[in-house]
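Appendix B, Record 12. Input sequence as logged:
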Amino acid sequence: MPTTSTDPRAAAAALLVPGTTCHGFAVERCETVPELDSDAYVLRHTVSGARLLYLACDDENKAFAIGFKTPPADSTGVFHILEHSVLCGSAKFPVKEPFVDLIKSSMQTFLNAMTYPDKTIYPVATTNEQDLYNLMDVYLDAVFNPAIYTKPTIFEQEGWHYELDLPEGAEGEGDGNPASLREGTLRYNGVVFNEMKGALSDPMSVLDDAVNAALYPDTAYAHESGGDPRAIPALTYEQFLDTHARHYNPSNSYITLYGDLDVDRALVFLDERYLSQPSAASRRMDAAIAAGEDPSTLAPNPLGVQTPVTCEYKRVEMATTPENALVGLGLVLGSALDRKRTIAADILFEALLGSNEAPVKKAILAAGLGGNVVSYTAAESLQPYELIMLQNAQPGVARELRRMFQNACRDLCEHGVPRERLEAIISSNEYDLRQRDYGIADGVAIACDALSTWLYDDDAATLALKYGPVYKELRSELDGTYFEDLLRELVLENDHMALVELVPVNAGAGSEGAEAAELAAKRDAMTDSELANVVERTAALRAAQEAEDTPEDKATLPRLRVSDIGEACPEPPLVVDTTAPIPCLRHDIPTNRLAYAMQYFDLSCVAFEDLPYVTLLCRLLKQLPTSEHSAEELDNLLAGKLGFLSFTTEVMTQPDVDGVRPYLLVSGGALSEKIDALASLPREVWSSTLLLDADADRVRDVLTQIRIGLEQGFINNGHSAALGRAMSYSSPSAVVREQLSGVDFYLFLRDLLDHFDERLDDLRAKLTELADRIFVADGCMASFTGSDEDFDAYWDAAGNLGLGAGDGAGRDALVVPAPRDRHEAFVIPSDICFVARACDPRRLGLDVTGAWAVAANALSYDYLWNEIRVKGGAYGCGFRAAGERQAAFYTYRDPAIDPSIERVERAGAWLGSFEPDEAAFEGFIVSCVSGMDAPVKPYALTKRRNTTYLAGLDPHAREERRAQMLAATPGELRSLGTDVTRIAAESPTCVFGGRDVIAKSNANFNVVDLLG
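Logged structural output:
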């Protein structure tokens, strides 16, 4: 029976008694999960067969997720297209974009959907319980009763469709001249189609797909679940619907509830509204059976186990630059249900390959086979695998890599894997597990983790969550030969492996030429009526996209009102503690017995042309020996004693429009019981690293790895690179960022690598000089987050951090060049593009208040979403008004440049005529404010508060901005339309994209072949 207890664990214990039935759910068992401070209840809906896991705990950030087992039978991306499509309207909520409407109007702290190789998950999180039910209602109706059955345009929009670009002056079917249709250019478009073009422009993704196909040729894992653009057009609408009907039913579902919520109400909601009701999928299945189809053909796709196969060598070719040559060695680890083996393998390969000092990686790099070696454990599948990847590989080294890898592992099996390294990796993992910083809402991450075993065994709902006993057991195994035996099994005796080489060909060509030829042949094979039908279908799709939701349809959506927003949780005051040897920003934030220490070193003492060397200094520290420890000893010490230690740069935009203050930031975290190491190890690294004697090969390896990482970023996250570059055309702060980590830094680095031998001595001297100049007390600001006891212990051990006072000379050495518009388009190996148009609004005399955040929300999720994503086919787009110092438009995985720029230029006019109804406008405010109020982990909160202080921001600025959001009116937003038009018209543009895409633009860019 319901309980009035406010303790979620006590309430669940009273309601969910194993062996009983509650609101249609059989309560199968209850388990305590101490790792998550929660109790786990496993239930099964008696009518539908739906599985449910409830994790009762005190977390106010509540979460819900529903997942389905969706192993693909091909690479058409049907499950990825379904993931997009079911969120485009449903029976109960017949609006075009309920997913976007929720983003615009809810207090969600997470709202998304994800397609994995064998499952699809729809998770949400929010701190407001009524909002949770609103989100659940929309998501459940979306997955069980989507509008896809009555609106084929959804499939065409989100998946793929033909478009026929007619010659200038032709009007299609209506011009009475079929010849004009035959002169048109046939092309594909669709959101997922374009998304996957971008995703598979990444050589690492292509290699991973090839390794999976070689390891699991007879199973679902042989296919690209996201969809291969070459295969996506083979998917028909009927296949799409049949696939939904076979997989999106409760008996194939896995539901997770998490946090401090009324589970009694939740179970009633699930049972009465969805699980005990017929769905669109079930009705289609019933109709198929009534029509005489064999029920066995209507079952979900099977998820089978691959019998061991050995792929001695496989070659795949890709149009990319020579630097993107890769070799991948895939090793199947066993079963996902053998958690000890999977976790042990992850620890083992991290010990062997996780850093430049790891023994196997060190040997491979020394042999000169490639520029970098990375390894990761792919545990999100029935048969997890390890992928060892050689980046920037030399031609023809695949078999040599395998031979060297096996020989190195054989030697370790005979002589032992270094115990200090294994123990350090285990300690580092335990720190991460205590920190619980998933980067997303905890409940969402936990729901996904649970499915990494639950999907394969109904009795394994909590198996992946109970890691404590596994780590305890693995620590005990350090005394025996367990890790050597495992290494022998996985590497030397493994008959389930694959060796794949990715060979670059036709660098920069992309796949546009082959696709154009294929489409020209398709056009020529079509009849006149088929070509006319393409034009008609495109027109029908455009009409559907242009159509406005009716007031009646909009009224179906559940919405929170501004009155539902609670008071902002006050943050503890930021205290500058002057009793410490170094001025220290003191943060009184609960940390679960962790401590964080930071030091901000002022870089105004560094000349602008020397800033790239600061980035190199940051990356080389920790990689080189110190006067006290070898590089290998230091690597093990840092992993074993600290949770993390990083040397990075931060650029603080100052209140003055031309003001900029860069810092070198040293950040560290440790368990409270290891506070002494947090005080001593960072100091050792910055004060006694042997920079003048730095080993040439070691330095070259690190620099090459930086280059590879930057190039991967340009391909995968080109919107970030484009935004940063576009901002540098108007913002001094962005000019500095470009010099430290953007295109300018990349060009500096590439030139340095090209002349490495002749410049090595100068590089060593420059790094030594900069370290001596930067790491001084003058201009240093410390920060500490942790308990009072830890604070005292830290400073007792740290003293003055070993910092000299500094002579004060050169404190104003940094002179930043004036920003200038370069109107650049950077060529990267890709079939899509990323477009950015950005500026510092202060340059235009604009005061960016909290109302701008509401306007950005409306522009991003109303105007730009519909124009650039829905109509244009780009995977992502948006407008940012970041504080008062950035205003920016961007697109992500966009098929074309000019149409998006034209739509951006019309954004101000749209905002100027913006007339939402009251409920819709309040939704924009609710979602903006909830973004400010969302829970923040201690480390992220610390950095945010430090930035506020060091950037000279008003400490009450967040409160004022929040109040301005709450007070915003439609009229105020309309008044910003003229300003948005100015931003769109006067902001410089930067593009990262494929050569063919850039060539189609009429924007007259300065084209730069970035990757050579």
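Confidence is low (pLDDT under 50) at residues 1-5.
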